[in-house]
Design a protein that fits this description.
The strands form two sheets. A six-stranded antiparallel β-sheet has the order 5-4-3-2-1-7. Strands 6-8-9 form a three-stranded antiparallel β-sheet, with helices on one face. It is about 25% helix and about 25% strand.
């Protein structure tokens, strides 16, 4: 007698997945992964922009810190400006701010060096410092002032600053860059107060521009407002994004600052 074949149960008939179920599952997986990728790309872009902004601001702040440190040790003429024999700013400047064009602005001044920086028998504890801005960034240059065998400054410190300024202006290739991210440099110089001037005359000078291309002071200004605009040049994600940093740098005892 022939035995009948066992019939498949309902459980065994549903053990596998149909093609429609597989396609539906794959489509759902693609949608979920696509959504996650979009969210991940957006988060990555935001992180890159924030990182670029932070990097540019850090470089600008470091440049401002260096400038503030140098200006904190700046010195002026040894002769009080109230005396009749005091040199005029145009004859013996110790602080020069100049705007040759909208693409080149520079500050030149003399500062006191620390004992650790002084080396050599012919070196004085003073140096000329220049901060020169071009469209390639903000650069810093320095040169120790020289002395004669008897320790006197020859030529004068002001003359050496003027010569140093001329040498810096001859530099064609950008070098000594302290902040390549700086795309705009605006120093506002405030004149020292004088009893001979009225309050309206002691207002800050205009920003350096075509009408005010140059400021020469035999004394130091009371303080300087420095405005920097910076971008991260090497990061395409920050293209078109400009960040701004502003700081007021006070020169301690500006009018009382004298040569040692």
């Amino acid at each position: 007698m022939r035995m009948p074949l066992p019939q498949p149960s309902a459980r065994s008939r549903r053990a596998g997945l149909t093609v429609l179920e597989l396609v539906s599952a794959l489509a759902l997986l693609v949608i979920v992964l696509g959504t996650l990728m979009v969210a991940l790309n957006s988060a990555t872009d935001i992180w890159a922009r924030n990182t670029s902004k932070t990097r540019a601001l850090q470089k600008a702040r470091q440049a401002l810190d260096l400038l503030a440190t140098d200006l904190a040790s700046a010195v002026a003429q040894s002769t009080a400006r109230s005396e009749p024999t005091a040199p005029t700013s145009s004859k013996e400047p110790f602080f020069i701010a100049e705007n040759k064009s909208n693409r080149q602005i520079a500050l030149y001044f003399v500062r006191q060096r620390s004992p650790a920086e002084v080396s050599g028998s012919g070196a004085l504890s003073l140096e000329a410092v220049a901060y020169s801005w071009t469209t390639n960034g903000l650069s810093r240059y320095e040169r120790p002032l020289s002395t004669t065998a008897d320790g006197t400054i020859e030529p004068t410190a002001s003359d050496q600053l003027v010569r140093f300024k001329a040498d810096v202006e001859k530099i064609t290739a950008v070098s000594n860059v302290v902040a390549a991210s700086v795309v705009r440099f605006v120093p506002l110089v405030y004149q020292p107060l004088s009893p001979t001037l009225t309050p309206s005359e002691t207002q800050p000078l205009e920003p350096l521009n075509a009408s005010v291309p140059k400021i020469e002071l035999a004394d130091l200004p009371d303080f300087i407002d420095v405005h920097l605009a910076c971008v991260e040049r090497q990061d395409s994600s920050s293209a078109g994004t400009t960040n701004y940093v502003t700081r007021r740098i006070t020169l301690p005892a500006a009018q009382a600052s004298r040569l040692p």
